[in-house]
Amino acid sequence: MEPKRILIVDDHQLYTDALSSLFTAQTDEKFEVVGVLHEGGGVINALSRHPAHVLLLDLNLPDQDGLDILPELSRRFPKLKIVIVTMYDHPKFIQESFKNGASGYVLKSSGFDELRKAITEVMQGNRYIGEGLMMFPKETFKPKNGKFDDSFSIKNKLTKREKEILILISQAKSSKEIAEDLFISDQTVSVHRKNIMRKLNVNYSASLIKFAIQNNLIE
User: Fold this and answer.
1) What is the pLDDT of residues 32-49, one digit of tens each?
2) Domain-by-domain residue ranges, the chain?
């Protein structure tokens, strides 16, 4: 039987080393780890050189988010099964992952047996959602203890338009200038600005820019 070919993308080397060893040690089922990457930028080239059946992809990568590269991966490799393996359990991230082409979603806190189960399910053409995860939230998305966990969570709290406006705010542009750049009204920019501040729990533009810089929300 042909081994299941696995590509692992995660920025924690100790984790990827352990996961590779677990796959290699399996005797009842054959796995072949065709590659391990610690950034998202080389995934397409790696898959082109070493075709895989399953991609195990973390969401929070140092160079780009897993959510950002999912659509391109799905377009270029339509037969590839992508399983998100991450620490983020909020339904927002689960929904976005499946929307952008993932076949499975598993928490890192799960055991190896569940990851194997996820791989089996997605290779059979099924969708797999890890135990205890919910596709739809029971309540509105709120940061734990009034704070966000990290820059990935913070950034994904904002909409695409809000991210665009945050970048322009960081360039010290006025609402009028932002409106002209984005071809929207001043009033719309003001609404977005208020929403950004509310979501990030800041009250002034200077505090907003400082917060954005400290949390790597702008480049």
Assistant:
1) 999 999 998 899 999 999
2) 4-129, 144-214
Predicted pLDDT of residue 205: 74
Phi, psi angle pair for 112, to nearest 5°: -65, -30
Nearest to 61 by CA among 3, 11, 25, 119: 11
Q: Return the H-helix or E-strand segment holding 217.
A: none
- The CATH number for 144-214, chosen from 3.40.50.2300, 3.10.180.10, 1.20.1630.10, 1.10.10.10, is 1.10.10.10
Least confident of 85-94, 109-118, 124-133, 147-156: 147-156
The rounded distance, in Å, linking the Cα atoms of 38 and 32 is 18
Q: Using alpha carbons only, how large is the chain's radius of gyration in Å?
A: 20
Burial class (CB in 10 A: 0-12, 13-18, 19+), 184: middle
| CATH number attached to the domain at 4-129 | 3.40.50.2300
Q: How far is CA 206 from CA 179, 213, 219, in A?
A: 19, 11, 17
The Cα 168–Cα 98 span in angstroms is 30
Confidence (pLDDT) at 122: 97
Q: What is the pTM of this model?
A: 0.68
What is the pLDDT confidence band of residue 219, given thresholds at 50, 70 and 90? low
Over 90: is that where the pLDDT of 129 sits?
A: yes
Give CA separation, 13 vs 10, 89, 120, in Å.
Answer: 8, 22, 25
How far apart CA 214 and CA 98 sit, in angstroms, is 30
